[in-house]
Amino acid sequence: MPPIPARRLLGSAAFCAAIAGFSVALASGFDLPTTRTDLSDADMKRVVGVTRPTTDFSKAEQYEAMQAGGATSIDPITEDSFSHISATIPFEEEQPFRLGNALFKKLWVSAPSSTQASDGLGPLFNARSCMSCHLNDGRGKPPESGVSATSMVLRLSRPATPEEQRAITEAEIVNFPDPIYGHQLQDLAVPGLPSEGKMAIRYTEGSVALGDGETVLLRRPTYQVTDLGYGPLDPATTLSPRVAPAMIGLGLIEAIPEADILAHADPDDANGDGIHGKAAIVRDHRTGKVALGRFGWKAQNASVRDQSADAFSNDIGISTPDRPDPHGDCTKAEAKCQEMPTGVQKRLGREEAPGPILDLVTFYSENLAVPARRKASFPVTLQGKRMFYESGCISCHVPKFVTRRDSLDKAQSFQLIWPYSDFLLHDMGEGLADGQQVGSASGREWRTPPLWGIGLTQTVSRHSFFLHDGRARNLTEAILWHGGEAQKARDAFTSLPKDDRQALITFLESL
Fold it and tell me: Which of 116, 254, 435, 486 is 20 to 30 A off residue 429, Cα-Cα?
């Protein structure tokens, strides 16, 4: 077996400790933690050893099948496999999880309504509930012919002026909205109000030749907005399609120490391996403090709570303490929208979804269990794992982390997890570029998505569309769309014999 390059062997807590001082520079001068303070020396030594990428593919690693540590779900595989409670949640916390689940499924209605605790929808919106986008807590998909785009949205942004760019650089804002249509195209509206427009997608196909002569068809999407309800978009506004991501393991991702993620960052490619992982620097919605972005397709949110508040506001038009505008993404140019009644009930709180509701939805979202792997020790899976590692995929899809021992939620504390992501931003090439800056992320950069659960997409979500806009119809197509920093790994995959390519796909399907 050829040796694994040193860059990939450095993807561990040992690497984190070794370059702790270097990580400060990687964070663009912002004050972020650069060393773990939650571990004793003995614990640190254990973490260094257990997170070091393996070089032995003759057998599965210890605990590998339990890819979320003790929080892993071992329930039978069904369409509800992403909806189970974390195995580390104590009995007394099962009730808030179930209440959060009910609120996640809740259908909001327009105001005024006789169901006053459920009104406030919109006035402009994309969905009536969280579950509408995250069917079975899984990933969304692009709209098919005649079907609503409920689980996929178009994010809108115009380029920043030189003066505005400073605010982005200082992490005061992630980008600037279209002056009329705001940050997101809402294709639905309450009665009496026009929707903003409809997403239109056109695909063109092209073939890619693999090393053994096999060809694969890739479909390239182009996007436009039709039936605009409030006049033209700004000519400079960019359209960025985003499908809803799967909901599993989010609390564990938040419990990964910032220092361990920053340890993998190398924006100037100091080690010359062609990988330029960059930290997303954002601000916590409530405190305004600088934090490491790790949620969203461009890592624009630092916490599950921030991500949830954004979704309430942009997708459903519901206000929360963190995003208190009851008119959601309505702009001043959409005057009729601003005049519509809201669902704020003073006796219930100052927002349509007061603090307890946001707390429960956040708790639910933090504690959805990652399913155990299937066939992790099978020879073909191990063969595919070796191909995945040796092709360079783990340069970005980092296999393992150990969560904080002092995590605020003990259910996520000190767990060995296998998300297969570094949670950093990477240039993925022109083919996947959306041209839209989001905070630290350029128009060519995307956060490395975690891969756990990816093999259950068809079972849970009833489709097999991948990447940020669902253009890939299977995992092979998803790999072939990789460019930029991932070009070498993609080319390594195309040059593999067919049996090895299929083995790599089998490995991914086991996650």
Answer: 254
CA distances from 160 to 241, 250, 299 (A): 20, 31, 19
Measured distance CA(57)–CA(392) in Å, rounded: 15
CA distance 119 to 115: 6
Position 398, amino acid: V
SS3 447: strand
DSSP class of residue 432 equals G
For residue 320, count other CB atoms closer than 10 A to its CB.
26
**Averaged pLDDT, 17-37:** 60
Task: Report which listed range, 15-29, 200-214, 344-358, is most confident.
Answer: 200-214
Torsion from C-alpha of 56, 62, 64, 70, nearest 10 degrees: -160
Tokens of residue 314, six digits: 């942009």
Per-residue pLDDT tens over the stretch 48-105 = 999 999 999 999 999 999 999 999 999 999 999 999 999 999 999 999 999 999 999 9
How far apart, in Å, are the Cα atoms of 297 and each of 240, 433, 444? 10, 12, 12
Ramachandran sector of residue 219 (left: φ over 0; alpha: ψ -120 to 50; beta: rest): beta
User: In 10 A of CB 93, how many CB atoms?
Assistant: 17
Name the residue among 128, 121, 115, 225 with its Cα closest to residue 181: 225
CA pair distance 225, 200, nearest whole angstrom: 6
Q: Distance between CA 427 and CA 483 in Å, rounded?
A: 8
Alpha helix locations (H) across 394-474? 457-461
Q: Where are the alpha helices (DSSP H) in 212-314?
A: 250-254, 258-262, 304-311
> E-strand spans in 105-197?
124-125, 152-157, 188-189
Residue 430 has phi, psi (to 5 degrees) of: -70, -30
Q: For residue 252, give the amino acid letter.
A: L
Question: Distance of CA 473 to CAs 218, 398, 465, 467, Å?
Answer: 9, 24, 5, 9
CB distance 43 to 383 below 8 Å: no
Q: 325 to each of 123, 229, 351, 352, how far by Cα in Å?
A: 11, 22, 8, 9
pTM (2 d.p.): 0.94
Q: Classify residue 25 as exposed, middle or buried by CB count within 10 Å of its CB (0-12, 13-18, 19+).
A: middle
